[in-house]
């Protein structure tokens, strides 16, 4: 015979904490607490298998269920010394749902079940409190009608209000036993009118009605939506817990409360919670009365005058504190607890692992390990890598008021406030004048880099999670909200419109790049704390991970930040932004627009010393760690002049007319630049560009080695390769340039030449390409774009809907699409290594900082991931968890 029902109580239980799949979280923990000898009201759990059976069999229960429930109820009756439905001495129970994981949306709780017109008299007599009995009965009718029979709560609240008006009183507590009797009659009438049937008087009908409602609620729309959003399988089902009632509303020596064994927002090792005297659990949640503090210290801190539980019920509080200690030791984690005190006796109603902020998670994990309750590995597994984001950037003060204007994509975490400005130049000017600014653009381009750098935060109306704004902001560690579609920016008029409101240049705004919120005015922010617990946990993580973590950085500032965050090298140093700075851009434009190789070489000669200086600095900061430098990638038109004065400047330098220059510039126009003349295709057409860059790299490497005596390890990376031929041709050029520099300088440095795998063809042809490569770095931004055929700049508009419809589980530009893009990474890895078993493999797309993608990279066997500086700690922790899993 299948066991469907599990009993608990009186220091024993048929279930255990590790039976969550069968008993649900609540049921399993009630059983565990009972076994631990904690005061748990006796009860029974109907297993999740009954839920599955129920839905597999046209909403019928297994035939043995009724008998098993009856038997378990008998055990409760014996334990409590009362009988279900007995008019003289009635047993009352609560009925609650309980899935494996807590699941809002489902039927929650029915209390005081077992009351009817007869048993209420018995309760009145035994409790010697008529008012309590009738109040309990009306609460039961109200709850049962609402959650089981579907008669809305407000009908009953209206009746109560009406009655209070008639009596001329304000509070529920002003109502007497007789008032509740009148209201009970009115409630029953209301239910009868609404349903055409009387309120059930048979206690067994009541019980099975509530059990059915719990199972029924597994499939209601709200619950389904929640499951979908949280990846909870339909098959899990819910359990039902039926438990003897204990009453926190039996007078001044009774109470009910909720508590955490440590502070869930700071992680401080102090009890945290609230309680209410003479109340039932729902009163705490409903917020009708303001709950009081649990401890004296908390009360004093809050400046509250109502006594804390520690002061008003010192003895019971002492018992509760020892239960907290026992539970934490037993579960080896911070617990979230519900309890009731009935006439001076403590009862435990629930315990579970408490939800907590990232800050608290860190502190609790480190302190539990320090106390020897858990080991370092467990501590490392306890902190969710993605949650570290909250800690690495300034965050909004949760207590500060905010006026939310709109919401965009949470493109780069951190919160910032400042004056709204609409151009990069203005951002720079204002910043120089000492003002904090938020740069607001419809979208950003490489030309805006200086403004993005100067700004405290970046807001764009268009663009997705790998748009220019998002990628660059993450790299710089600037908070960014991208794709805030409700915003219209009129840069000329220096105004931004959104939902009928206006923000003018200079108006203060705040953005939260972790939530995507845009707020009007200045919202206070809090600074991150990177020493202490954070440093300790990261150190532990590093001892367990095998995957290396590098960074994507292309300025000395980013490089320095990344080292502080523990980067073990640079996995991607993009060189394009270096071309935009100050006077360089003129030389760059001259190069692009000159018609002859000689003209281009002349312009490149001007760029060489500047580029060399860039690399020298970065090599110095990385001190011996590998640095992967990617040769120029974006289409040339990105560098073209736009304004008339820019055209004049370049025409002057080239000695041609503005008209001619404009014609030439026009010829560079491409319909689809992402798939156009970019990446190594530029190197093939204009080898002198890559030669200049290679020279700058090797000259810088030689200079730093000579000066510091430390080895420099440059890795020259060729972008957007589709064929082996492209790579071998360009490799030869790089090698030739290296040889020249080493002869000129009489000094040789070790270096590597490799490629990015960012096109499907390159992944498929990896075996061949590996012949000419010392390393591969998977450029999963472009690989996602080209494998799925969706534009990284335009896809945000429909991806959101795709994710909602579950076509993609997540935005594939954020978390690697393992089935498609990931498969190409696997193929590239296997085929590359089939040619060169020691081929060095990394990833440098945005996915390198996404925990799930990092775990995927570990499984595939890559050597390293590379991500923006501020995500380095996240990747380190994710890599450790991948190794420990
Ligand atoms: C990539 O494509 O994944 C990559 C890292 O290069 P970029 O984002 O510069 O195109
Ligand atoms: Mg790319």
From TrEMBL:
List the active-site residues: 468, 844
PEP-utilising enzyme C-terminal domain: residues covered: 531-882
Q: What is the enzyme's class at the highest EC level?
A: transferase
The UniProt keyword set, sorted, is: ATP-binding, Kinase, Magnesium, Metal-binding, Nucleotide-binding, Pyruvate, Transferase
Names of the cofactor(s)? Mg(2+)
Task: Describe the reaction catalysed, as an equation.
Answer: pyruvate + phosphate + ATP = phosphoenolpyruvate + AMP + diphosphate + H(+)
User: Domain Pyruvate phosphate dikinase AMP/ATP-binding: where?
Assistant: 21-57, 60-365
Taken from the record, one Pfam family name reads PEP-utilizers_C
| One Gene Ontology term of the molecular function aspect | metal ion binding
Q: Which organism is it from?
A: Kordiimonas sediminis
The name this protein carries in UniProt is: Pyruvate, phosphate dikinase
Domain of life where this protein originates: Bacteria
The EC number(s) attached to this protein equal 2.7.9.1
State the protein's purpose: Catalyzes the reversible phosphorylation of pyruvate and phosphate.
What does the entry list as the binding residues for Mg(2+)? 758, 782
Per UniProt, residues of the PEP-utilising enzyme mobile domain are 435-516
Which family does the record claim for this protein? Answer: Belongs to the PEP-utilizing enzyme family.
Q: Which region is the signal sequence?
A: none
SUPFAM superfamilies in the record: Glutathione synthetase ATP-binding domain-like, Phosphoenolpyruvate/pyruvate domain, Phosphohistidine domain
List of residues binding substrate:
574, 630, 758, 779-782
Is Membrane found in the keyword set? Answer: no
């Amino acid at each position: 015979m299948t066991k469907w029902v599990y009993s608990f109580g009186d220091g024993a239980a048929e279930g255990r904490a590790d039976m969550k799949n069968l008993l649900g979280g609540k049921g399993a923990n009630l059983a565990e607490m009972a076994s631990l000898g904690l005061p748990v009201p006796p009860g029974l759990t109907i297993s999740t298998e009954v839920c599955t059976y129920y839905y597999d069999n046209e909403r019928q229960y297994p035939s043995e269920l009724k008998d098993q429930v009856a038997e378990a109820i008998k055990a409760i009756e014996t334990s409590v010394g009362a009988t279900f439905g007995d008019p003289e001495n009635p047993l009352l129970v609560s009925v609650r749902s309980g899935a494996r994981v807590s699941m809002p949306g489902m039927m929650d709780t029915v209390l005081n079940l077992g009351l009817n017109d007869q048993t209420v008299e018995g309760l009145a007599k035994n409790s010697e409190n008529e008012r309590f009995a009738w109040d309990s009965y009306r609460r039961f009718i109200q709850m049962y009608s609402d959650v089981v029979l579907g008669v809305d709560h407000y009908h009953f609240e209206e009746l109560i209000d009406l009655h209070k008006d008639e009596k001329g009183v304000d509070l529920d507590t002003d109502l007497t036993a007789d008032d509740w009797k009148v209201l009970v009659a009115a409630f029953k009438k209301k239910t009868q009118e609404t349903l055409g049937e009387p309120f059930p008087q048979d206690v067994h009908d009541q019980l099975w009605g509530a059990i059915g409602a719990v199972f029924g609620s597994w499939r209601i729309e709200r619950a389904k939506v929640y499951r979908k959003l949280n990846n909870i399988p339909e098959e899990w089902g819910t359990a039902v817990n039926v438990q003897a009632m204990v009453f926190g509303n039996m007078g001044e020596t009774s109470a009910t409360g909720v508590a955490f064994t440590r502070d869930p927002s700071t992680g401080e090792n102090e009890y945290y919670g609230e309680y209410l005297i003479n109340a039932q659990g729902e009163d705490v949640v409903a917020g009708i009365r303001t709950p009081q503090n649990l401890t004296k210290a908390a009360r004093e801190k809050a400046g509250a005058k109502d006594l804390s539980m520690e002061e008003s019920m010192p003895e019971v509080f002492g018992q509760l504190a020892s239960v907290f200690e026992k539970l934490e030791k037993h579960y080896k984690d911070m617990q979230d607890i519900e309890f009731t005190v009935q006439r001076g006796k403590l009862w435990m109603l629930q315990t579970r692992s408490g939800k907590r902020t990232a800050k608290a998670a860190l502190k609790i994990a480190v302190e539990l390990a320090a106390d020897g309750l858990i080991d370092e590995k467990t501590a490392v597994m306890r902190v969710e890598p993605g949650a570290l984001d909250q800690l690495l950037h300034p965050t909004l003060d949760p207590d500060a008021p905010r006026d939310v204007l709109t919401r965009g994509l949470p493109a780069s975490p951190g919160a910032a406030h400042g004056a709204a400005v609409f151009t990069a130049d203005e951002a720079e000017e204002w910043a120089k004048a000492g003002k904090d600014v938020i740069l607001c653009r419809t979208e950003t381009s490489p030309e805006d880099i200086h403004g993005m750098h100067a700004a405290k935060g970046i807001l764009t109306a268009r663009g997705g999670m790998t748009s220019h704004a998002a990628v660059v902001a993450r790299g710089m560690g600037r908070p960014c909200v991208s794709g805030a579609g409700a915003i219209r920016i009129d840069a000329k008029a220096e105004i931004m419109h959104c939902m009928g409101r206006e923000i003018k240049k200079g108006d203060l705004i705040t953005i939260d790049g972790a939530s995507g919120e845009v707020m009007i005015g200045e919202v206070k922010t809090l600074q991150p704390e990177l020493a202490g617990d954070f440093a300790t946990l990261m150190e532990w993580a590093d001892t367990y991970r095998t995957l290396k973590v590098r960074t994507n950085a292309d300025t000395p500032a980013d490089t320095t930040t990344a080292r502080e965050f523990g980067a073990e090298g640079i996995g991607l140093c993009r060189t394009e932004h270096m071309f935009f700075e100050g006077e360089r851009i003129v030389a760059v434009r001259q190069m692009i627009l000159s018609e002859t190789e000689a003209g281009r070489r002349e312009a490149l000669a001007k760029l060489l010393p500047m580029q060399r200086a860039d690399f020298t600095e970065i090599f110095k900061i990385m001190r011996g760690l590998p640095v992967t430098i990617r040769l120029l990638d974006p289409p040339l038109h990105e560098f073209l002049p736009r304004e008339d004065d820019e055209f004049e400047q370049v025409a002057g330098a080239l000695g041609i007319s503005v008209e001619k220059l404009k014609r030439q510039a026009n010829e560079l126009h491409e319909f689809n630049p992402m798939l156009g003349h970019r990446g190594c295709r530029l190197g093939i057409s204009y080898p002198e560009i890559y030669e200049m860059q290679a020279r700058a790299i090797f000259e810088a490497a030689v200079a730093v080695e000579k000066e510091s005596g430390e080895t420099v390890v440059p890795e020259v990376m060729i972008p957007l390769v589709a064929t082996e031929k492209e790579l071998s041709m360009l490799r030869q050029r790089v090698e030739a340039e290296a040889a020249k520099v080493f002869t000129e300088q009489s000094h040789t440095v070790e270096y590597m030449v490799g490629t990015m795998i960012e096109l499907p063809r390159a992944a498929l042809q990896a075996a061949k390409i590996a012949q000419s490569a010392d390393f591969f770095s998977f450029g999963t931004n472009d690989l996602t774009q080209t494998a799925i055929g969706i534009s990284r700049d335009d896809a945000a508009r429909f991806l959101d809907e795709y994710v909602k419809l579950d076509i993609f589980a997540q935005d594939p530009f954020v978390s690697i699409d393992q089935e498609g893009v990931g498969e190409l990474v696997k193929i590239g890895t296997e085929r590359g290594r089939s040619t060169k078993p020691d081929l060095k493999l990394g990833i440098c797309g945005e996915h390198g900082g996404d925990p799930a993608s990092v775990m995927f990279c570990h499984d595939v066997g890559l050597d390293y991931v590379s991500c923006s500086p501020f995500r380095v700690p996240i990747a380190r922790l994710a890599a450790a968890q991948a190794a420990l899993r």
